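[INFO] parsing input record for G5 domain-containing protein
[DEBUG] input buffer:
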Amino acid sequence: MNQWMKQLSSKFSWKKLAVSSVGLLTLMSIIAFAIYEVTKAEVTVEADDDSISTHTHASTVGEVLEEQDIDVTKHDYVEPPVDTEIKEEMSIEFKQAQKVVVSLDGELNKVWTTKQSVEGLLEELEIEVHKHDIVDPNLENSLNDVNVVKFNSAFQITVISDGEEKEVWTTSTTVADFLEKEKITLNKLDRVEPAEDEQLEGTGKVNVVRVEKVTDVVEETVNFGTVTKNDSSIDQGSEEVIQKGQEGKIEKQYEVVIEDGEEVSRDLVKENVVQESEDRILVVGTKKAAPKTVSRGSSSNSSSSASSSSGSWRSFTATAYSAFCNGCSGVTATGINLRENPGKNVIAVDPSVIPLGSRVEVKGYGTYIAGDTGGAIKGNKIDIFMPDKSKVQSFGRQSVQIRVLD
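[DEBUG] output buffer:
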């Protein structure tokens, strides 16, 4: 019995020892676990829009992010840096970078950014946006789901169109694009300087020239000619118009080019004779007059003061006049219609010096009929009729030699 008791006691002690060992191990494990947990550092991870609080035995920031299954690339934003040693109550900020294509005035660039908005991206790229610049999408837009950000810087252009000059801000690259955006339409003949395919540059100028072609029909007169015929049945020095001249008419059609309201060219396209001109026919007498006889017994007083000087040259002051002078009727004192007989050689004289109807010779100019008078023609002064008004003006006042022929 005692022996059985000893055996039982021995077995019980062994079991008690075994149970005590297991409990000790369990306790030690609990203590070790508690110590492990207590020694963890508390770290907050701000990842994009999420905030994660965690306890970790990680030694660096990079290890903490790895524990959170956050893959870090070289373009991502991590603060503090990944190799920073972990400290209690540390805060880690992580922003994942995304790749965006940026078009800067048409030039494409691939960039990585952690910015959330278009505005933030442009600020990061140090691009200053002004009032007239174009940004697509808008500055306030999020970069999420955005593949391309377009930025076109505006510049000023002077545009001249339809008589108006103004300054315009534009982001256009070509003249054609600029005209389209400004809603300036070119008609078929219009042109623009520089040409539509030319590149625009800042502080440049675009000139729109409005061009039109019109047809102008003009009726012009054609001067008539003068045909002279000799007639032996008419006294020498006499003239007679047997056919008045008549001016002709011709119609001319011109193609006229007008630019911005001003005529720049005129080309004759065709002409049409509306009315033929008719020559003026003048008959000139060639019949010589019979010689005059003078009675020997006649008194010397019977001859006039003018006839006593026949044949001798005398000095006169000469001017000229036309049939169309101010106040002129075109008909002389002796009844000659100078407008109908522009080829008539007539001078105006002082009848007390040279009798009317006398035939006189003006040295250097030819033979004339003293057929007219004038209020200013007194003494040794004559006025020579000239059909051309321009020659009247150029004749002026001259000293001439005159002799009375008959």
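[INFO] Residues 98-152 form a domain with the Ubiquitin-like (UB roll) fold (CATH 3.10.20).
[INFO] shutting down worker
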